[in-house]
Amino acid sequence: MALMTGKEYKESLNDGREVYINGERVKNIAEHPAFQPIIETKARMYDMNHEARYAEACTTKLEDGETICRAFKLPKTKEDLTAIRTYVDTVLDDLGGVVYRVGDETIGEMWSLYDAQDRLNEIDPTYAENIKNHVDRIARLDLFHVSANTDPKGDRSKLFEGKAAGTLLHVVEENDKGIVVRGAKFETAAAYAHQAFVKPTISNWTDQSMTPYACGFIADMGAPGLKHICRTPLSTGKNPVDYPLSTRFDEIDTLLVFDDVLIPWENVLFHGNLESAQYIRKTVHRYSAFNYVLRLQRRADFLLGTALLNVEQTGLTKLPAVQEKISQLICYRETINAHLTAAVADAQKSAGGLMMPNQSLLYTGRLYALTNFPKMAHLCRELVGGQLAVTPDSATIADPQIKEYIDKYYTLDGGWTPEKRTKLLYFARDLLNSAYGGHQITFELFAQAPPFAQYMAAFNHFDLNPVRDMVTKAAHLETDTKADFALQK
């Protein structure tokens, strides 16, 4: 057991998994053009753990001395949470882009299960030991672990009736080897991951007829009967110079079809108990949301840096109206940063003995970042200007037949050559206006939970008692109102 290399990771994907994309079954996923860019990105993350310059930020040791990826160390102190933040920043700095489902975010859901061991033991002690074993196994084997949450959307008023009931993942059989499951889930990165924590998204467990759907387990992504049906990449046929983000960081989404897949008993985390399923659903993002919001901050950095460089090259930074817009982007970025910083500073010990980011600050920070991103992206568009929509592609810019015109109309003082200017515009276009840019906004809105569920999380984790008591006291509501009025007379 040791840290995996990028080469070993790519080789590990050739396990016979059944992957379909663009009308074909994939033979070698690591070399397939639809998957190769994002697999190379993940391979780079594996290789970073072996480089001396990244050793402190990207690796750590277990109590027995075994070296593991920093992302997989259970956070037991505030310093551990700060180290996770440093790890994510270091990885994103090296990659030069933003990726979400690459292992460090989704491991947090397993930590939520680890936290819940005592409560799950009270409800049903059968599977608690499996949780502890898998948290340890992921770290020691350096596995690419993802999550499978989202159900195929049918008639939601008939979730457990007719055809809709057949699409929801459920247990169809138990035997001495494990449970057999049927149904489907959507998940990002599943086709090139090692395993996934599969669980229900249902929040209202009302009666025992729902019991077959109340299951959570670890699924091997190469398991017999598991089919990966993937969406087409957003970067197909695109030049990496013209689309520097989408050609490297498009994380492929997958419809995971469980066609009577056997889940060994040692991989079952909860099963056949409505209370367990409901409890897990309420706590699942208490750690993963931290790594998620770190990515949202990086996206805010990209907006700010893109806008700033564009107004600097065109000499507009001294205009008060431009400074006002840049300041709005600064405030957006720093508010996300403040939520993250405060969530660590005011972190709390969990029931399982882990250091948990302050839940109210974390969930409100997530909402602030997501709900304000479209507005901030529009500000960035305004500052970049109309050239975002009209700039020729790199092949045209490099055409020697028109070089004199390109040099004349695309050269600016301060070392802004046509090549440099258009590179910035291509980055801005991919960030803001491309299919990839639009996909990211939708992905981010729903990736951890739909908006209403995120608002519920914020509501449920804010302590309303102090403000209620404050106003009760300030408005003298604790005294007899009639008596107060009588005194005035």
UniProtKB/TrEMBL annotation:
Domain HpaB/PvcC/4-BUDH C-terminal: 281-475
UniProt key word Methyltransferase: no
Molecular function GO terms recorded: oxidoreductase activity, acting on the CH-CH group of donors
PANTHER family recorded: 4-HYDROXYPHENYLACETATE 3-MONOOXYGENASE-RELATED
Lineage: Bacteria, Bacillati, Bacillota, Bacilli, Bacillales
Record keywords: FAD, Flavoprotein, Oxidoreductase
Top-level lineage group: Bacteria
Gene3D superfamilies: 4-hydroxybutyryl-coa dehydratase, domain 1 (1.10.3140.10), Butyryl-CoA Dehydrogenase, subunit A, domain 2 (2.40.110.10), Butyryl-CoA Dehydrogenase, subunit A, domain 3 (1.20.140.10)
InterPro entries linked to this entry: Acyl-CoA_Oxase/DH_mid-dom_sf (IPR046373), AcylCo_DH-like_C (IPR036250), AcylCoA_DH/oxidase_NM_dom_sf (IPR009100), HpaB/PvcC/4-BUDH (IPR004925), HpaB/PvcC/4-BUDH_C (IPR024719), HpaB/PvcC/4-BUDH_N (IPR024674)
UniProt organism field: Brevibacillus nitrificans
Entry keyword Oxidoreductase: yes
Record domain HpaB/PvcC/4-BUDH N-terminal: where: 5-269
This protein's name: 4-hydroxyphenylacetate 3-hydroxylase
